[in-house]
Specification:
By secondary structure, the chain is an alpha+beta fold. The chain has one domain (3-64). It has helices spanning 14-20, 32-36, 61-64; strands at 25-31, 52-57. The protein has a two-stranded antiparallel sheet.
Length: 75
């Protein structure tokens, strides 16, 4: 993946973005507390929130032909 193709996510380093966000991602957004506006930053002593990101990507033609597989990513 080229650096200029990598989506920029606030609070995520470029290295994390390259590792976690697959090539051909067409939709990416926050879920959970950030999406609902209830996120408490980690600097706050009452913070227990994490950052949940969900996306949709288009697999390569090799996956559709059964020549390769595509797995979900979690971290």
């Amino acid at each position: 993946m080229k650096v200029y193709d990598t989506p920029k996510i606030k609070g995520m380093s470029l290295e994390e973005s390259i590792t976690l966000i697959p090539l051909n991602t067409i939709l990416l957004g926050y879920m959970g507390s950030i999406a609902h506006g209830t996120y408490i930053p980690s600097e706050d002593p009452n913070s227990i929130d994490d950052k949940d990101i969900m996306g949709v990507c288009v697999a390569s033609e090799y996956v559709y032909l059964g020549l390769d597989k595509f797995e979900q990513r979690e971290k």
